[in-house]
Amino acid sequence: MDQEEQLLKIGTFSTLSRISIRMLRHYHEHGVLSPAVIDPFNGHRFYRADQLMQAHLVVQLREAGFAVEKIAQLAQSSDPVQVAAAITQQREMLSAERERLHERLAALDLVSITLKGRPEMTDVTLTTLPAMHLASLRETLPSYGDEGTLWEEMWPLLQQSGVAFPAGGISGATFHDPEFRESDVDVEVWIQVDGPFTPIAPLEYRAVAPQKVVSATLLGDYSQMPAVTGAIGAYIAEHALSTGPMFNIYRVSPAQNPDPSSWVTEVCFPVLAD
């Protein structure tokens, strides 16, 4: 029996492997999957049946996002450690890419919200906050989104310090960096207490004098925070004010109500004396 009669024609191999003839030729050119025989007279290509297993692996590697050069390397490799390391590296890269895509989708949603117009917020006002006694915890965090870890650390310290809270007291967070930072952010969370107390380190006690602030209150989730800070920025510029570190007062916080539509956040910038 002629050797070619024991092989699969390229069209049949294409159907069985689910790889187009064009891609089979492409893979041949790049050393990924070569025909078993090429007829020297007419150039027809033939494959062995046992090459289908390699072809299926090639398809899986392609669908996993590997470049053709890497597919050629892995499909021909006899080192399981090398293959496992490449798969782990690809998994980590795809996971990071998925996170970036999620972040971009979230940003796209915010663009849609912003284009709808003004968020639910109060007008910007100039007001004076009363003197207060505060318990506070200040640390450098990986990002602004890690603020919750400070609150988790703070609550046991408050209990150990035996503090009491006034009716209608407030809590908040101050962002001490003079500029926006991508990482290593200086954040202080604080809560109003009845009076002086002896704190358990790293918890601190401080008395705050009355302070004049520029503020506006956001009603709802934090996606529209840039609109609020934009309105405050316009007010500061219009009135030529000098301001200190921004802080939020959580009138209704996520800890109090998990429903974002119920959150009430007063955004404040203390006005510095001329």
Automatic annotation (TrEMBL):
<dbReference type="InterPro" id="IPR029442">
    <property type="entry name" value="GyrI-like"/>
</dbReference>
<dbReference type="InterPro" id="IPR000551">
    <property type="entry name" value="MerR-type_HTH_dom"/>
</dbReference>
<dbReference type="GO" id="GO:0003700">
    <property type="term" value="F:DNA-binding transcription factor activity"/>
</dbReference>
<dbReference type="InterPro" id="IPR009061">
    <property type="entry name" value="DNA-bd_dom_put_sf"/>
</dbReference>
<protein>
    <submittedName>
        <fullName>MerR family transcriptional regulator</fullName>
    </submittedName>
</protein>
<dbReference type="Pfam" id="PF06445">
    <property type="entry name" value="GyrI-like"/>
</dbReference>
<keyword id="KW-0238">DNA-binding</keyword>
<dbReference type="GO" id="GO:0003677">
    <property type="term" value="F:DNA binding"/>
</dbReference>
<dbReference type="Pfam" id="PF13411">
    <property type="entry name" value="MerR_1"/>
</dbReference>
<dbReference type="InterPro" id="IPR010499">
    <property type="entry name" value="AraC_E-bd"/>
</dbReference>
<dbReference type="InterPro" id="IPR011256">
    <property type="entry name" value="Reg_factor_effector_dom_sf"/>
</dbReference>
<feature type="domain" description="HTH merR-type">
    <location>
        <begin position="7"/>
        <end position="77"/>
    </location>
</feature>
<dbReference type="InterPro" id="IPR047057">
    <property type="entry name" value="MerR_fam"/>
</dbReference>
